[in-house]
Amino acid sequence: MNIGLTQFLVLSAALFCIGLYGILVKRNLFSILMCIELMLNGVNISLAAFNYFLPMPDLSGQVMMIFSITVAAAEVAIGLALIFRIYHDFNTVNIDKINNMKG
Fold first, then answer.
1. Residues 11, 32: contact at Cβ < 8 Å?
2. Which of 7, 32, 35, 79 has fewest C-beta within 10 Å?
3. Average pLDDT over residues 61-76
4. pTM of the prediction?
5. Is the CB of residue 39 less than 8 Å from the CB of residue 19?
């Protein structure tokens, strides 16, 4: 059984759409952060698939994927720091209850 570019792109689009749906529906900051990671992983799968199925494969897709993983790691570090600070200040991570942005 051969897996083609189409199957990888369908998987990538599914992961991206699930992440986007989660961002729009979820109210918990940790869930939103995980949904963003899901979207980035969908993009990573498409970059790796395009790199593999290029007629003359080079390292550009892999380099972009490593860059995306690096950005995702930084996003998690900063996002978790912000979430912990918000929890410290408001005692909740529900975004509906965090509507006070006074300093």
1. no
2. 7
3. 90
4. 0.84
5. yes
Q: Are 80 and 72 in contact (CB under 8 A)?
A: no
Residue 64 has pLDDT above 90, yes or no: no
| Residues in Cβ contact with 93 at an 8 Å cutoff, skipping those fewer than 6 apart | 28, 29, 30, 83, 86, 87
Specify whether the CB–CB gap between 62 and 51 falls below 8 A.
yes
SS3 state at 33: helix
63-82: string of b/e by CB count within 10 Å (b at 16+)?
ebbeeeeeebeeeeeebeee
Q: Which of 35, 45, 50, 34 is nearest to 68 (CA)?
A: 45
Q: How confident is the model at residue 102 (pLDDT cuts 50, 70, 90)?
A: low
Beta-bridge partner residues of 49: none
Q: What is the pLDDT of residue 77?
A: 95
Q: Looking at the DSSP assignment, which residues form a beta bridge with residue 94?
A: 28
- Phi-psi domain of 91 (left: phi exceeds 0; alpha: psi -120 through 50; beta: other): left
